Amino acid sequence: MKKNYSLLVGLTLSAFGLMAQNPTLDFVSTYRTGIFDGGAAEIVSYDAASQKLVFTNADANTVEILDFSNPNSLTSVAVVSLDTYGDGVNSVSVYNGVMAVAVEDDPKQDPGVIVFFDMNGTFISQVTVGALPDMVTFTPDGNKVLVANEGEPNDDYTVDPDGTISIIDVSGGVANLTQADVTTLDFSGFSAANYPDVRVFGPNADLAADVEPEYITVSDDSQTAYAVMQENNALAVIDLSNNTITALLPLGFKDHSIAGNGIDASDRDDMINITTHPVFGMYMPDAIAYGNINGQGYIFTANEGDARDYSGFSEEERIKDITLDSTVFANVDSLQDDEVIGRLNITTTMGDTDGDAEYEELYAYGTRSFSVWNATTGALVWDSGDQFEQITSQEYPNDFNANNDENDSFESRSDNKGPEPEAVEFAVINGIPYALVGLERIGGIMVYDVSNPTNPQFVLYTNNRDFSVVNAELPAGGTNDSIGDLGVEDILFIPASEGPNGQAYVVTSNEVSGTISVFQPNNFTVSVSEETVNSFVVYPNPAKGDEIRVSVEGDYTIYDLSGRMVGSANQTNRIDISELVPGTYVIRSADTTQMFIRQ
User: Fold this and answer.
1) For each successive 10 residues of the chain (599 residues), what is the average pLDDT?
2) H or E element that contains 207
3) Contacts of 480 (CB under 8 A, 6+ apart)
């Protein structure tokens, strides 16, 4: 446990009963589809009014509705086939009793559809959107539905539709929708020449065709959306007040030669070896999430990485199979060994800086991390470095960088994106903001306290996977009850205000095991760190009047000892507490926690 630190009036944390806890994500239950390694549980959403979960099953081309009123025992109440509407379900989002489902066409280069159902699975309406609608979400106010239309090429790379963003106005109700309510935005106004740091690299492609929107998140005021183009390593900003794309932000690269940014790059050295290498990582996020912390918006990204690999065009190669410039890489022979970085996958579309067919720079897929970005400027605020591999190597030394479809696979992913961060969710639990990150390969959820976005703190790692189940017992066509969750694809946070019995829950959908699993946060209580406890002073303390003052002007939030937010103030050093009943309270700034007594 952490030590107690005296406050201004000589009171200690133990006097308030706030000794540091051991926060946990406790397993509650699992719903099993019975399908193994078939994408049977990919995207999950929740309707608080009906207390139902809905998830996509790509294997069956369905969405399934679960009764969540008893999280300890999930039961299926309806299965909705999408065969009538298209060839493949990709995403689902629920708002106030209505679900929006994204369905691609066959071929997927043709326009897809968004289909609306009620929470019993009854059809309401549908509209056409762009090619390959890969992700759909309601805005927080429920007035619009946003769609990331990925626009992938065909396998021959002879047809490559534009990547687009569709905005559906549902403010008049989904029952009255017409195609006139759909605005589909393309990137024709953006030139690759003006955005040299955005990856535009498909054969003969312009920027509009080459960008592939993957995922969308929305600001809490429903005014701004952010769409990530994974393969392009870029983020688009959309103004929802006038439905325009206002900015295209390249995400840049991570230097794996810097201490703290190391990777385990070889699956053939039979050891855990997280170290620096002369390689750059392309962030290339999959899922992204928006969070507002003390009035500033941030984008949280799960930096998975993804390569284009088609019969008509492939960018992926191993370092041992390319020619390195020996004037840049002095130790070429040893670098290209399988036991060093020879088997690491990189892109061939970048790195030959002088066009001589020798590579002066190396760019790998993903960064094996999650990042925090300033939503206003697009600047990188923080990255978790090599923490994911360091943590998993300590927690699962015999299964480090394992794959998600076999248990006896130590280090099998070291040459290819490692733990592969896939999913991310922003959650506020007992007044504290957290980032929840799902690892697709080894599995599990990383939890970070992001109260200070410039220095998030690791809280816990939990993995609902049983590595003792031998591969011979893994099924070819049906799920194995004992294996647990494999292949985290999506993470959903249900706040206590919306959850059954007033409890908060975390739900994961797991595409390889075909499972929906439920977890409950426990002991996520207000904490005080040694580094920040004295960063500002509250006075008078105890407070006998209706106002307290703080020594530093800023943004502050007040919580009672149950973690419930009871007040806030922005850009001030004088805070009104007249509405607070006598008792002990916690006051937080962006990076500091203090306590005071209201008498």
Assistant:
1) 26 34 90 90 97 98 98 98 98 98 98 98 98 98 98 98 98 97 98 96 95 98 98 98 98 97 97 97 98 96 98 98 96 95 98 97 98 97 96 94 93 97 97 96 97 93 92 58 89 96 96 96 66 60 81 84 81 90 85 79
2) helix 207-210
3) 36, 469, 473, 474, 513
Gap between the Cα atoms of 126 and 124, Å rounded: 7
Task: Give the CA distances from residue 523 to residues 27, 458, 504, 590, in Å, rounded to whole numbers and listed in that order.
Answer: 14, 15, 12, 21
- Residue 490: phi, psi to the nearest 5? -150, 150
- Cβ atoms of 456 and 372 closer than 8 Å: yes
The tokens of 67 are what? 């009764």
Q: Which tokens sit at 530?
A: 């040694």
Which tokens in the block code for residue 514?
């075909």
Q: Is 60 helix (H, G, I), strand (E, B) or coil?
A: coil
387 touches 373 (CB < 8 A): no
Q: Any long-range contacts for 10-14 (C-beta under 8 Å, 24+ apart)?
A: 11/595, 11/597, 13/528, 13/595
The residues, any chain, with a CB within 8 Å of residue 190's CB and separated by 6 or more, are 207, 208, 245, 248
CA 579, 584, 586, 587 torsion: positive or negative? positive
Compute the C-alpha angle 261/267/268, nearest 5°. 125
| Torsion 269-274-279-283 (CA) sign | positive
- State yes or no: cis peptide before 500, omega within 30 of 0: no
Residue 207 makes CB contacts below 8 A (sequence gap 6+) with 187, 190, 191, 192, 195, 198, 200
**CA gyration radius, the chain:** 25
How distant, in Å, are the alpha carbons of 31, 68, 146, 338 from that of 28?
11, 12, 32, 42
CA 220 centroid distance within chain: 16
- Residue 459 phi/psi, 5° resolution? -110, -55
**Contact between 551 and 573 (Cβ < 8 Å):** yes
The values of phi and psi at residue 209, to 5°, are: -80, -30
What count of other Cβ atoms lies within 10 Å of the Cβ of residue 1?
Answer: 8
d(C-alpha 117, C-alpha 138), whole Å: 14
Looking up tokens 């480090």, which residue turns up? 400
Token code pair at residue 398:
């015999």
